[in-house]
Amino acid sequence: MSGASPASPGDRRREAPAGGSPIQPIIKDVGEIYSRLLDHRPVIQGEIRYFVKEFEEKRGLRELRVLENLKNTIFETNERVLPKCEQAMRDNLNETLKRLQAANHMIHRLQEKEHEARKVQADKVMAREEKCIAHWEEFMKEQQNKRAEVDEEHRKAMERLKEQYSEMEKELAKHVSF
Q1: How far is it between the farthest Cα atoms of the chain?
Q2: What are the CB-based long-range contacts (under 8 Å, 24+) for 162-169?
């Protein structure tokens, strides 16, 4: 053992060879081999960039086709479908308006007829009520006359009975005095 202290594994790092050592290029080559074989970050980043670029191009083309289809559909709608719809709407609206006016006129006539029928019915009811009132008044007059007749007959019958009882009392008084 020479004058140097024994080296531990951690001390080896400290004992890195000097700049002109023959091991230096080997360490550099091992580092490059390691980064090429085991460190895939640069390759993966390149692949990701390529994938994103392809995706955006394909997506852009797809969206461009969708927009072109929409443009064609809108153009066809504006040029062909919309005028046909407007004409059909005008034709149908005129016909519908005529039908509505005819229906409105018919309903108006029906309402007038119904109003007249109700008026005739109300007049009939009023006439019946007046006739009933007249019959009632006549009936009440008859009842009053009959009551007066019955009262008169009752009064006469009472007088006759009074006379008859008074005669019977007289006769009874003759017979009792014996």
Answers
A1: 199
A2: none
Distance CA 136, CA 128 (A): 12
**Token pair for residue 29?**
């080559």
Q: How confident is the model at residue 9 (pLDDT cuts 50, 70, 90)?
A: very low
Q: Yes or no: say if 83 and 77 are a contact pair by the CB < 8 Å rule.
A: no
pLDDT single digits (tens) 22-69? 899 888 888 888 777 777 777 788 888 888 788 777 776 777 788 889
Distance CA(151)–CA(47), nearest Å, equals 133
Give the C-alpha separation, 160 to 7, whole Å: 172
Residue holding tokens 């390759």?
A: 43
Contact (Cβ atoms closer than 8 angstroms) between residue 29 and residue 22: no
* Whole-angstrom distance, CA of residue 78 vs CA of residue 70: 12
Percent share of the chain, pLDDT over 70: 87
Separation in Å, CA 112 to CA 35, 105, 119: 103, 11, 10
DSSP state of 8: P
- Residue 16 carries which DSSP code? P
* Count of beta carbons in the 10 Å neighbourhood of residue 98: 10
Q: Checking phi first, is residue 2 left (phi over 0); if not, alpha (psi -120 to 50) or beta?
A: beta
Sequence letter at residue 111? Q
